[in-house]
Amino acid sequence: MVVLLDVDGTLIDSNDAHAHAWVEIGRRTGHPIGFHHVRWLVGMGGDRVLPLLTGLDAESGPGKSLLEQRGAMFREEYLPKLKPFAGARELVERLLEMGHELVVATSAGEESMKALLEQAKLEDLLPLRTSSDDAEESKPAPDIVLAALRRAGASPMDAVLIGDTPYDVGAARHAGVPVIGVLSGGWTPVSLVGAREIYSGPRDIIGALQQSMLSA
Prior knowledge:
The chain is α/β, with parallel strands linked by helices. It folds into two domains: about 1-15 and about 85-215, Rossmann fold; about 15-80, Orthogonal Bundle (DNA polymerase, domain 1). The protein contains nine helices and six strands; from the N terminus they run βαααααβαβαβαββα. Strands 3-2-1-4-5-6 form a six-stranded parallel sheet, with helices on both faces. The protein starts with a strand and ends in a 9-residue tail after the last helix. The relative contact order is 0.18.
């Protein structure tokens, strides 16, 4: 089986930090952004979040500049303080031991994705990766999931995605891939409706591996 892995909120505790970075870049650029407003947009691609928060087109000069500034600020000021969720590395190791092929499927850009995996101490275990740079449209569109399937040479029926947001669930379901949801990103079971299984986080998945669809 191919297991597609989201990163933010799934393997590393970064969702609040992403929201704080949006609030701070808004303050620096004259775009007031409320934390609780942006917090529940984290998980979508930045190109989708930007116009909702600022009215700027992500393809415009000002939009591209703000996104680049936010990304750099996140990596430099917030990322170094983040920690992986308990059990994240063990889960990845166990999935590999079970013979699953793992592919990262994240809305983060390639530079941020690499930095996140390094901070989570997972970069050595996850060489197959796809990011927003590999997709025409970001989550909740299915493009990133489909790109990850292509990278693995797999069909949707042979894969499962582990993610933490409704945008992960939407992207996977549009691609025909079943979803295992985790609550570690701050969402509720109701928010993750459509997921086949829901766990509190990586450590909880480890405890249920033999009963999970991951045992197939």
